Please model this.
Amino acid sequence: MKKAEYAAENFIPESSRKAFLEAMESIAKLASAGKADGRGSMDYGIAKKRYLGHGKNLVQVTDIVDVMRTMDKKAYAEYQMIGRDDGGLNALKYLTNWHQNAARKNPGMIDAYEKQSEKYVKKNVNGRKLDTTFGAIETGSKSAFLESLKAFQNSNPGFLEAVINRELASEFWKF
Model:
């Protein structure tokens, strides 16, 4: 957030700063609420949208692979095992068949997926407090920003080492 504040103060027009910082705060809250799986892939718990078209003709669509991942974990695991040596045709066939069958068996699945996402945001994101470790960092100018980062590091000499050690101890790096 401090980098975003620095960017807002130094590069974003004043009329757009508030909207920019609100967007960055929303992104930071979503990111901090996310969970990594064993392979390091992040799950942010929200419905993933895709857009088709161009310009004013954009149409928002639901990411059906994410629906499968969220709503039918067994099918998603099978989908992940399909080889891509045929240019992805087998994966596309599996996905298409899964979607047709899922839509017949559970016509409200997409609505349930999107409601689940809304509940997740209300529960885990909306009231989330962001980390304030770098709250005292100055953002008024590049030199003040860099100097306050140096001062932080000098007053917290083991901070970076602790972050690196914690990261290296995570499941992601284990073989």
Remarks:
- The longest helix spans residues 14-33.
- The chain has two domains: 1-33+132-175, 38-125.
- Helices lie at 2-11, 14-33, 64-71, 73-81, 89-105, 109-125, 142-155, 159-168.
- The first strand starts at residue 35 and ends at 36.
